[in-house]
Amino acid sequence: MERREILLLLVFSCVYLKCFVQTEKCDPKPLIKKHEGYKQCVYLDTSGKRTIGYGFNMEKAGAREEFIRADPRGHCQGTAGKTFDMFLKSPLTKCSKTCPGCCKDSEISKCLSVPCLDNKYIERLLDSSLKTAIVDAEVVIGNSTFNALCCPVQNAIVNMAYNLGRTKFKDFVKFKAAIEKGDWDKAAYEAKNSIWCGQVKTRCTDISKIIGAGC
Ligand SMILES: *[C@@H]1O[C@H](CO)[C@@H](O)[C@H](O)[C@H]1NC(C)=O
């Protein structure tokens, strides 16, 4: 081979190898979307907390920051905080799947007085709270353990962190220990054997099945 050919071969194999070496980026969104409702208006969740979008709890710690982070332009103009406050005080309806189309005729006037969050904003809001959920998963499970897991298990764990929040997720001590050991049966059992599991039902069944299958 000539030097030029060898050089070309080297360049091509580097490009090719890079595709292999590049770590897979896990996407926890589809599973979360499956488990969350989707509403453009504020509603009360089962525990009576003001909620919007993909189950975004407006009353949780850090909710305001996540909401503002989802709107960089509003953040610069200082309007995102005001928008958050408006939704935090907005009247509630039961007719709030999409705005205002899902309203029953008799409820239209009530629904029109309720502010609706833009679909694109709801998507960005999910991205914003996912950032928090991923960091929470990294902290609770341990960063190097978490990032070494395969995507299905990572996604299932992020789903738990998204739903539980860091404080409650931290109580899953035996779960964490089982994940560290790669004992998938035990980890699935620990997820299932919790009060949380009884509350969220399908979500817990899905998650423990994925974790039980392991990496
Ligand atoms: C976990 O590790 C990754 C990669 O090393 C890093 O980017 C990330 O900030 C770390 N997360 C936490 C919560 O420390």
From TrEMBL:
Signal sequence region: 1-23
Gene Ontology BP terms: defense response to bacterium; killing of cells of another organism
Keywords: Antimicrobial, Bacteriolytic enzyme, Signal
InterPro entries linked: Lysozyme-like_dom_sf, Lysozyme_dom_sf, Phage_lysozyme-like
Signal recorded as keyword: yes
Gene Ontology MF term list: lysozyme activity
Protein name according to UniProt: Lysozyme
